[in-house]
Each structure stands twice: as C-alpha cells, then as structure tokens.
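INFO batch 0412 | record 1 of 1 | parsing
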Amino acid sequence: MFEMQNRINSREKIIGWYSTGPKIKQNDIKINEIFRKYNTQPVLIVCNVQDEQLIGLPTEAYFTREEVDENGNMGRAFVHVTSTIGATDAEAVAVEHLLRDVKDASQGQFSKNVTDKLLGLKVLANKLKEMRTYLEEVINGKLRYNQSIIDNFQDIFNLLPNLKV
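INFO prediction complete | emitting tokens
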C-alpha cells in the first residue's frame, strides 16, 4: 500500500495513522511500530466516534517516545500532543458550500455568538474536569507526577482573567 500510495501521490508523505476509539487501545503500540518503518515518528490520531455528547473536535493526537519502566526495561509510550485541524482555501470553500444548506438562516448573529460562547464554556469545563481527574489520580498514586504537565497547568491558570478586580 505504501508503494502504491507513492506512485499515485508522490508529493504526499505518510505522517501517521488513525484509530476509531474513544481512547488508545492496548495493541496501538504494536501497530505504531509497523508505521515506524515508513516514518520514524508517526502520529496517531484517535477519533472518538462513539460519544454523541462530545464538545469540540472528536480527535486527539499522540506520538511515541522511549521510556524506562520501573524494572529498567525500555519501551515506548504514547505522549499526547496538541493538534488542530486545518484546511486549504479550496477545502474551506468546499466545506462552506456543503454546509450552506445545513445552517439555520433564522439564527441571528447575536444568537450564534451566544451559542459559540456557551460551547466554549462547556469545552473549558470539560478540560478543567480532565485536569482535576489527573491531579486526583496523581494524589492517589494511580499516575506518576509529571512536572511538565504541572507547569502547563500553571501556565493555563496564569492566563485566566482576574475576576476579583
């Protein structure tokens, strides 16, 4: 398949693969090792196709890095990376054209802005819950303490507005 893809789309490069699950599966490391033959750092995109209540993008991106476990054995583990989904101008125009008939024309700009703000607040609340869950699992000893994650938390909290002014 790799050779056929290179014949048809020689300018495009395989950067990774995707899985349809709400979370990473146990065999994903083995599959990722196969993709390392074609790309030394393949990206895994997990598409959450099951959660109907999901707010925001239904994707999470990961790559692997070597880690040493408690017994001193080397292995690979997935590390989450931030990601965005973008489009070229032509793709954006095509999507707008497809969505033209789906949009509710009766919804005014103010109503749309309020809906967007509510959606943003729901996403923020979900992310804060994830952060809380992580911290609780660290306190309970289920997860190892990671200083870079704590530093990211502090950066996020520093960006929050001061509502006491």
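INFO post-check: The first strand starts at residue 16 and ends at 20.
INFO record closed
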